[in-house]
Amino acid sequence: MICPNCHNENRYDALTCDFCMAKLPMTTKRQKEIKQRQKLEKKNKLSKSITKLLGLLLGLVVIILIIVVVYLIRK
Ligand SMILES: [Zn+2]
C-alpha cells in the first residue's frame, strides 16, 4: 500500500503510513484485497507445515528402514 501523502511503501494491510503516520484510505476494494491476501497467507502457512510434517515422516521412515536393514544383516 503506497501512501498517497508521502509515497512511502507500507504493508498491504497497514491502516496508517509508517513514515508520516497519515491514515491510509480503506476502500471496499482494499478490504477485499486484504481478505484475499490473508486467506492466501493462511494457505501458504498450512502447506508449509504439511511439507515440514512430510519431511519429518520421511526422515523417520528412512531411520526405521536403516534399523531394519542393519537388523537383517546381523542375523
Ligand atoms: Zn506517508
Annotation field: number of helices: 1
- Hetero compounds: zinc ion
Residue fraction in strands: under 5%
Q: What is the SS-derived class?
A: mainly alpha
> What is the radius of gyration?
24 Å
Shape: rod-shaped
Write the H/E string, N to C: H
| Uncertain spans | none
> What's the average pLDDT?
94
Rounded to the nearest angstrom, the distance between the terminal CA atoms is 67 Å
Helix % is 55-70%
User: Strand tally, please?
Assistant: 0
Largest sheet: none
Short description:
This protein is mainly α.
Descriptive account of the structure:
- The structure is a single chain.
- It contains 1 helix and no strands.
- The chain is rod-shaped and about 75 Å long.
- It is mostly helical.
- The longest helix has 47 residues.
- Zinc ion (ZN) binds next to loops.
Keywords:
75 residues, mainly alpha
Structural topology:
Elements: H1 28-74
Zinc ion binds near residues 5, 17, 19 and 22.
